[in-house]
Structure formats: structure tokens, C-alpha cells
């Protein structure tokens, strides 16, 4: 799916969080790096319409995130920095099923899709567990299942391995590597992005580099050492 930014700009009052950005993203694995406050989350939130451009446009699969807001948002799933906060219902299977409400599906169809996505991520045994009692790795997998059950084409993950131990980092890295969906990952965990197709580096609200992982990460290290 093509994600197209055309002079997309975001200002919060007088502060420009994202300078005019013109860019087309079509790769399956896209990484985004940059120092804190460099505009990464703002750029990602433009894609699913959570943030609207103050100037310029953003389209996903040809749908404008402002003019075609609902259809555009349906193309993208978003896992936030603290995924436990995006779980609405107390039991994991109920939270996953909640995302399928209002889709004219029967109870049996919702149960079938919920079981299938739990099984896809190897977490069927967590179906009846309380979401706030899940470990960090289990929470990430549960949130990914909750988001992907609705069938978005693109999954955006904001720092998915933050706060995870080495074992769970590995688990989430392998899970992301195995996803058939297009993926855009914001990460300070540079190892996660090593095999990606393309890595963007943001600096002070501007796209500072757009390259292969090794070149982009070298550029980022350079910026970070200034
Ligand atoms: N809702 C908001 N209101 C005002 N300013 C904001 C808002 N959201 C972000 N900003 C500002 O915009 C700039 C970019 O923030 P953004 O969250 O996009 O950065 P980031 O690169 O994702 O940072 P981090 O790595 O810390 O998550 C920062 O200066 C931030 O303070």
C-alpha cells in the first residue's frame, strides 16, 4: 500500500512538530528513528489520521486522511507506546472481539475470528486472562492481535520493544518479521530495524535521512553524537 505525504506539515500552536514532508512509502518493512521529540510519533499519527496535517495532505492507498477519514483509518492499525492503555475490555478475548463489533458479523463469526487470531500469535492460552495481568511481551502480542483482527493493511508500532526484556524483545522481533502485513515501526531498538527495507531518520521535525538500515542508522548515530 502506498502512503503518500505531500508537503504535510504539523504545527502545535507556534511550534512546528513536523516540517513540510513530501514522501512516498511503499515498502513492506519501514523503520523510523530519531532523537526524542524529533517528530516520529507525529509523522506516524498522520498516517492513521490521529493527527491532521496543518498544511499539505497525507493519503493511504489513495484515501485522504482528512477527506476520507474513516476509510483511511480502517487501512491502518496502531500499537501505541503503552499498549495496555489501548485495551478496553478486561479479558483478552473480549478485547479482541470488541474490535469486531459493528461489522455485521454473527456471534459465531466473531468468536471464530477471535480464536483464529489468538492461535495465529500462539496466545490461545491467554484468551481468558485479564489484560492488566499480562506480562509486557504478552501485552504486545495481545495488542497486535486486537489490532490485526480487523484486517488493516498496515500496522504501525510505536516503540514495541521498549520496556521488554531480551527474551521478549526477541519474541516481538520475530513476530514483526513474520507479519504478512506492511509494517512501520518507530524504534530506539536499532537491532530491530536491521533487516528492514527502508529506514527514515527524523531530526528536529525534518526528514534527515532516508536510506538502507545500515546507512540510516549510521546517519542517526552521527546526529545523536553532535
Ligand atoms: N499534542 C501536542 N501538543 C503540543 N506539542 C506536541 C504534541 N505532540 C507532540 N508535540 C511536540 O512535537 C514535537 C514532536 O513530538 P513527537 O512526539 O512527534 O516526537 P517523537 O520523535 O515521537 O519523540 P519520542 O521519541 O520522545 O516519542 C515535540 O517537540 C513535542 O513536544
From TrEMBL:
Listed InterPro entries: AAA+_ATPase (IPR003593), ABC_transporter-like_ATP-bd (IPR003439), ABC_transpr_CbiO/EcfA_su (IPR015856), ECF_ABC_transporter_ATP-bd (IPR050095), P-loop_NTPase (IPR027417)
Annotated PROSITE patterns: ABC_TRANSPORTER_2 (PS50893)
SUPFAM superfamilies: P-loop containing nucleoside triphosphate hydrolases (SSF52540)
CDD domains: ABC_cobalt_CbiO_domain1
GO molecular function: ATP binding
Annotated ABC transporter domain residues: 3-226
Keywords: ATP-binding, Nucleotide-binding, Transport
SMART domains: AAA
Membrane found in the keyword field: no
Family: Belongs to the ABC transporter superfamily.
Protein's name in the database: ABC transporter ATP-binding protein
Amino acid at each position: 500500500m502506498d502512503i503518500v505525504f505531500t508537503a504535510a506539515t504539523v504545527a502545535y500552536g507556534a511550534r512546528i512538530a513536523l516540517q513540510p514532508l513530501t514522501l512516498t512509502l511503499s515498502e513492506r518493512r519501514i523503520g523510523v528513528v530519531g532523537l526524542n521529540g524529533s517528530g516520529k510519533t507525529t509523522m506516524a499519527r498522520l498516517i492513521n489520521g490521529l493527527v491532521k496535517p496543518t498544511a499539505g495532505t497525507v493519503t493511504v492507498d489513495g484515501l485522504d486522511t482528512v477527506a476520507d477519514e474513516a476509510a483511511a483509518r480502517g487501512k491502518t492499525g496502531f500499537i501505541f507506546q503503552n499498549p495496555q492503555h489501548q485495551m478496553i475490555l478486561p479479558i483478552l478475548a473480549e478485547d479482541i472481539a470488541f474490535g469486531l463489533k459493528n461489522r455485521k458479523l454473527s456471534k459465531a463469526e466473531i468468536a471464530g475470528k477471535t480464536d483464529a487470531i489468538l492461535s495465529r500469535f500462539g496466545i490461545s492460552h491467554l484468551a481468558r486472562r485479564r489484560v492488566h495481568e499480562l506480562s509486557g511481551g504478552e501485552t504486545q502480542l495481545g495488542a497486535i492481535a486486537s489490532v490485526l483482527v480487523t484486517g488493516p493493511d498496515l500496522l504501525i508500532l510505536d516503540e514495541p520493544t521498549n520496556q521488554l526484556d531480551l527474551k521478549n524483545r526477541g519474541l516481538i522481533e520475530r513476530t514483526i518479521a513474520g507479519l504478512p502485513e506492511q509494517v512501520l515501526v518507530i524504534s530506539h531498538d536499532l537491532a530491530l530495524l536491521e533487516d528492514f527495507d527502508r529506514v527514515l531518520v527524523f531530526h528536529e521535525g525534518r526528514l534527515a535521512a532516508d536510506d538502507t538500515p545500515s546507512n540510516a542508522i549510521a546517519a542517526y548515530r552521527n546526529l545523536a553524537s553532535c
